[in-house]
Amino acid sequence: MEYKVRCGELTPRQLAAFEQSGYSEKFIRLLIERGIDSQEKAEKFFNFDPSQLHDPFLLKGMQETVSRLRDAINQKQRVLIIGDYDADGICATAILYKYLLTQRVKTSYFLPERDADGYGLNVDLVARLNEKFHPNLLITVDCGISCPEEIKFAQSLGIDCIVTDHHAIPEVTPNCICVDPKFKDQAYPFDDLCGAGVALKLVQAMEGLTVAQNYFDICAIATVADIVSLTDENRVIVHNGLKMLNQGTIPGITALARACNIRNEIKSGDISFRLGPKINASGRMGNAKRGLDVILEQDEERLDRVVKNLLYMNAKRQDLCTVIYDECVKVIEKNHLQNDCAIVVAKPEWESGVLGIVAVRLTEKYGKPCIVLGGKGEVYKGSGRSVPGINLVECITKSSEFLSTFGGHAMAAGMSLPVTNFEKFRERFQSVVTEAKASQPTESCRYYDFEIAPEELNQKFFQEVAMLEPTGCGNPAPVLMTVLRETRASSLPTHPAHTKFDNGQLKFIFFGGAVFNEILAAPCSKSVIFELQQNDGVHPQAVVKCVIPFAINDDEKALVLQRYLHDDLAVAPDQSMQAIISGLSVDRSVFIDYYKATLNLVNNNNFCQSPLKLFAKLVLPTKNLFQFVFCFAVFEQLGIYEVVRNRLQIHNERTTELNQSAIYNKIVNLNQTE
User: Fold this and answer.
1) Residue 75: exposure state from Cβ atoms within 10 A (0-12, 13-18, ≥19)
2) Structural domain count, the chain
3) Across-strand partners of 408?
4) Is the pLDDT of residue 120 over 90?
5) Distance of CA 551 to the CA centre of its chain
6) Which of 14, 62, 89, 288 is deepest in the core (most CB within 10 A)?
7) Per the domain annotation, does 50 fall within a domain?
């Protein structure tokens, strides 16, 4: 994977546009990258006055929705809200439910269980809900636009229906009042509201902006968690909603933040990576009501139980994701699926509720579209994620003859299919992706904004960058590159796979980066590409995306080779490393030779440290350091070598073929293609 710089040098005209601003050149580059190329646009970007919200009546169907809802209020009709089971659907339900309670309407809500009820509506569900709640009016939030038959069935039962949604508009929509910012034939100027944002606009239409502002806090959670664009009115909602959350307007979120060790103010990044996943976990693990409880509940004792339950479900979700991800990697590499244009894997035991997260991780690892399927019985359910340039839902649509259901957008989609159709679907989908890549070649590189010298990472720059908050989709946190030399890195005590280090001005955290500790400590220069997160202008923190070492001597090159063999490097090997790789032998006799030498050393000295330090004890001139690192990695992956508490154990009783190692096959394949 190659990293490229995104922002070019500024022209005199660009600098002149900000000459009265007092901004640093680096900060101006970040603004221009976001399309803010004038002082006037900057002033609007940094203006968070709620009056900037658009007129809700510009949304198609809003006037009819208000009229019908006012009738329900005046006639004291029974209203049923049906939401989705993710954070957005939960928050949208909370907004509309809380508002209708202020109108003294007899209101009920329903959040589906992922496995039992599926996404959105279905006929059986509508029938059950009618028996239970006997609603006069059904309102969907964050779902429903793709459910014309289900809405028709509800209407046949005498239920009036209103659909509020934000998903893409299908060819056929429900024959009822529908509000969705994605409709093309409407005057509304912004189409990227989340489901809770649409619910908020309904409250604004009913009662005006002053009342709608009372729900900014709930809507902010959904807007960030659902990864819609943090631009336009979403930016205003999230900024003001975060201020409310930090004033304690939702006791459950305050308690959840405390349980997540958020000690400073809640930022958009906290919702993205800490609070949002906990709320989402409730729906993924089968009980979305817990996510709703954390927003609606006021009793401190009950909230304590709700928060503990969310933490438990999230931990369970994390463990499940890790297990399934590891199993996916084994399946992929055992069957060499990483060489396919798109990866499609399935296993009946995999829990469908977490497969979207697994697909994200696989797409990041392999840099190509990935679909992961699982479930119980005769039907697979699952999710897919794509890469820039490949429209996932279009590719799935062209393969849909083998699917039962599907939906989504360019970068993410969900689907179900009979287990018996799996191989046919995989073959067709891969063929379609191959055609898509041929017609529109994709760029596999990643980007950072620009290089910054260590001394430029100072308080003034941090304070300027803090002005970009809230950051996220559409307004990303800056990704920068700086060059460091010797850095003392240490693994996190509670999460030893992660590591941390600093450069005096900035604290870095590198998730999964403990394997780079030796490289970080080496006296060679290394480029560190990082995202500047959790920045209040005073206590900035950087999340490392990639470390690119400039290895000079053999020891440093051996450290880099280790990380390359284990797929830890996010960049392709340079010419020096390519020469080392092409010189590696895959001959079985060579592996036996190095195995015997290592066995003899360990037996005689009972000694083990890292492969490099172990090699230093092999004082045989015929031995090659890079070949030793390669052999060590293969034997370790095969379970013949095992490092326990920094000591090497050799399992003599284990025998296996070298081609059972993905590391071995990786070098074989590379050297065969040269």
Assistant:
1) exposed
2) 4
3) 413
4) no
5) 32
6) 89
7) no
pTM: 0.86
166 or 571, which is more confident?
166
Strands (E), 279-378: 343-346, 370-374
* Neighbouring residues of 595: CB distance < 8 A, sequence distance ≥ 6: 631, 635, 640
- The burial class, CB within 10 Å (0-12 / 13-18 / 19+), for 525 is middle
Which helix (H) or strand (E) is 106 found in, with range? strand 106-110
Q: Are residues 182 and 243 in the same domain?
A: yes
Residue 322 lies in a domain: no
- Asked whether residue 558 falls in the same domain as residue 648, the answer is no
Question: For the stretch 601-621, what's the b/e string if a residue is b when 16 or more beta carbons lie within 10 angstroms of its beta carbon?
Answer: bbeeeeebebbbebbeebeee
Domain that holds residue 538: 448-571
For the packed helices 123-133 and 148-156, what is the interaxial angle rounded to 10 degrees?
A: 40
Q: What is the pLDDT of residues 472-509, one digit of tens each?
A: 988 999 999 999 987 888 999 888 889 999 887 788 99
Tokens of 218: 């709930």
Shared-domain flag, residues 556 and 665:
no
Q: Is residue 15 in a domain?
A: no
pLDDT of residue 204: 98
In this predicted structure, the answer to whether residue 214 has a pLDDT above a threshold of 60 is yes
